[in-house]
Amino acid sequence: MTRNESPMSEHIVTAFTDELEHLSANLLRMGGLAEAMINDVSRAVMTYDLELARQVIKRDESIDELEAEAEKAIIRLIALRHPMAADLRAVLGAMKLAGDIERIGDLCKNIGKRCLELTGDENRAALKGIERMARAVSHQLQTALDAYLRQDVEASIKVLELDDDIDDHYTSFFRETLTYMMEDPRQIGSNTHLIFMAKNLERVGDHATNIAKAVYYMVTGETATGDHVEDRLKRTGGTS
Amino acid sequence: MDGNVEDFTETTTPRQAENMAEMIKVDCRNIDVFYDDKQAIFDVSLPIQDRAVTSLIGPSGCGKSTFLRCINRMNDTIEIAKVRGKIYMDGADINDHSIDPVLLRSRVGMVFQKPNPFPKSIYDNIAYGPRIHGLAAGKHELDGIVESALIKAGLWDEVKDRLTAPGTSLSGGQQQRLCIARAIAVSPEVILMDEPCSALDPIATARIEELIDELRERYCIVIVTHSMQQAARVSQRTAFFHLGKLVEYGDTERIFTNPEDSRTQDYITGRFG
């Protein structure tokens, strides 16, 4: 028996294929917006650019609109096309993706709002930490979206591995910031904002991980649990 | 056909024990069917579970109906059809010369695509089978059989006041349930259904599906259907046929969410070119 994990041929009903493609294009657009929000909000924090922060806050609305649109398309697909097997997994996966990307938008918006509370004379070292985390998270999201675009299981596993790094980043950032606060209690207010920002970025990483897990399920039909992923890595000889 | 005798002696007893463990009612092994020179079924082996619904799906002409008709030896009635391979029901070879095909068909009932009630009263439609098989000792017992079959088929309340009306006076969905009641009346063990809902509207279809789900507690049911949604709704096991071959057989849930074979995938997602 041949296992079909490669992109499939088209449906007999071409409108079905069109609708699925439209849906995934819509999700990738959402994903692209979210990625830009991470990068921009991190720049806004670094350069104390309040105008850019306000822009990022505003942009969350577009993501929400796209999510509503995707949800409508998904309900329509289920009601009218009765997707089965790989199509069913693609549609359910799309639903998860839409939800996760929407949450990423919310988290970036939240960072933007906190940015407006900063004073502009924050500890440079702590700001650097935020920038590093934002870069790592943005890379992780990009890898996850790429895995979705190419329906690439190996790439989705890579995303799961990247998440550990981000958790480490967060833990060390937290410790570092605590030290600054102990040294200089006047920094407590602004550094607390920075800690929440880092926490939000860490949450973004979790959503990117969810996206990767959804991709894993879409392509393989199996849940991305530790055992299953390890089995697969053994069979394919690792990700790198 | 060499090796068959050995096969038989070697496998009957252990096989029976195994059957009980797996609750296999009908075990089809290496079935080939020919119409003259043309081969319609190629080496199909399919163990069918008791007290479960097994659906056979596949594109038109894939052999699913031909295969279904092997199980009650309906292909015997076609002059040019030739069946090879073994079908064991409760461990006994149904094609053995000691088996009377008429008696076999009383154990293996069949329901067809179009409802085909006899041109008789509702009562006589049901009573016909038990009468010819001598299943009822008298009028009273026969009444009991008719009532119980109509109740099991979910038709009793609708027809109890007009049992003498012709069976053809019922609606399409009622006629199909009448045919199911007729099949049940002779106490079969297996019920074969060849697209039982394709001539019915969605409500009548839903009723038949509900009935199939109830009947599953008592019978081994095999259903051929063109509607994959129906297969997904009513069956526990699904077999996908293509070009006379069994491509994939497994739990319905798995077949419809994560099929192994790319041909199954293409068919159930509507991609067959």
Give an account of the 3D structure.
The complex is a heterodimer of chains A (240) and B (273). In chain A, 42% of the residues are buried. The N terminus of chain A is likely disordered. Chain A is flat. Chain A has one domain: Phosphate transport system protein phou homolog 2, domain 2 (Methane Monooxygenase Hydroxylase, Chain G, domain 1, Up-down Bundle), CATH 1.20.58. With 240 residues, chain A is mostly helical. Chain A starts with 13 loop residues before the first helix and ends with a helix. In chain A, helix 2 runs antiparallel to helix 3, helix 3 runs antiparallel to helix 6 and helix 5 runs antiparallel to helix 6. The N terminus of chain B is likely disordered. With 273 residues, chain B is an alpha/beta fold. In chain B, the strands form two sheets. Chain B has a six-stranded mixed beta sheet, with helices on both faces. The longest helix of chain B has 19 residues. Chain B has a single domain, classed as P-loop containing nucleotide triphosphate hydrolases (Rossmann fold). In chain B, helix 5 crosses helix 7. The chains are: A mainly alpha (240), B alpha/beta (273). The interface between A and B is medium-sized, with 21 and 20 residues.
